[in-house]
Design goal:
Blueprint: E1 2-7, H1 12-27, E2 31-35, E3 48-53, H2 55-65, E4 72-76, E5 86-87, H3 91-100, E6 104-108, E7 111-117, E8 120-127, E9 130-135, E10 141-147, E11 150-157, E12 159-163, H4 171-174, E13 186-192, E14 202-205, E15 210-216, E16 220-224, E17 228-232, E18 236-242, E19 247-251, H5 261-270
Parallel strand pairs: 1-2, 1-3, 3-4, 4-5
Antiparallel strand pairs: 6-19, 7-8, 7-18, 9-12, 9-16, 10-11, 10-15, 12-13, 13-14, 15-18, 16-17
Length: 271
């Protein structure tokens, strides 16, 4: 079996864990590769991806590897660990099950975000949590939302979030959006501090592509998963659709999102 260990090189405890797991996995007969953000494997086929870190590291893994269809195990070495399935002190005892394929798979929808200058695509990136549109200055921006090429009106306020069900417990929740079961296929459209009082969050089936166009959005930016940023120029538009493949997340515990959800939300507040 070919196993990729992905960690955050800026967090020494994840580097140390990757080194330990590399030795143990090799002793068990696995072929092991490491991706720490600088050191990356070549174009090889991977059977299992183990992510050592927090939610941000798992989000990076999703952006870079989800479309390959490789099963991904999140091992929490961060703070809240919404996307992780086990804690770091549980990993060693689970290795035999992992190598034997003794686990279930939870599929998480991934969005594809395409930024266009007119009709010309200039950036395409995957997102596991959300894409955010907001101003870099303390001013209101206006954005037009289209669903299946039909206008849904103007959103006027500090910005707009388009989240996946997985991202519904992140920034969208803080802005007043609903928590959505991550097994569903949907987009959550959540205004940020809307000045139009009747604008409320929408849950839209992911079979419907979305388009966001600026109406008055000077000094605006687009941010995907808090990691990919670019300026939102007046002539740009953003097309959002469900990606071809979901993120296939390894589940060793049988846990669901709603198991101890309140506890994890409280832990997020404390951190």
């Amino acid at each position: 079996m070919r196993v990729l260990l992905l960690n955050n090189r800026l967090k020494p405890h994840t580097v140390h864990m990757a080194e330990q797991m590399e030795t143990k996995l090799k002793d068990m007969g696995a072929e092991v590769f490491i991706d720490n953000g600088v050191q990356k494997p070549g174009p090889v086929s991977i059977d299992l991806l183990i992510v050592l870190g927090g939610d941000g590291t798992i989000i990076r893994a999703a952006r870079e590897y989800a479309q390959s269809g490789v099963p991904v195990l999140g091992v929490n070495m961060g703070r809240v660990g919404f996307l992780s399935n086990i804690a770091s002190n549980q990993l060693e005892e689970k290795l035999e099950r992992l190598l034997a394929g003794d686990y279930s798979i939870d599929e998480r929808m991934v969005m594809e975000v395409e930024v266009c200058d007119g009709d010309r695509p200039i950036m395409t990136v995957g997102g596991l949590n959300e894409v955010v549109f907001r101003s870099t200055a303390p001013r209101i921006i206006e954005l037009m939302l289209y669903v299946k090429e039909r206008s849904q009106g103007v959103y006027r306020g500090d910005g707009l979030i388009v989240a996946t069900p997985t991202g519904s417990t992140a920034y969208s929740l803080s802005a007043g959006g609903p928590i959505v079961d991550p097994s569903l296929q949907a987009f959550i459209v959540t205004p940020i501090a809307s000045s139009i009082t009747h604008r409320r969050p929408l849950v839209i089936g992911a079979q419907h592509p979305l388009v966001i166009k600026p109406q008055d959005a000077r000094e605006a930016v687009i941010c995907v998963d808090g990691q990919v940023h670019m300026e939102f120029e007046p002539e740009y538009s953003v097309r959002i659709k469900r990606a071809a493949n979901p993120l296939r997340m390894v589940n060793l515990t049988g846990a669901l999102l709603f198991d101890n959800l309140e506890g994890r939300l409280r832990r997020n507040e404390i951190q």
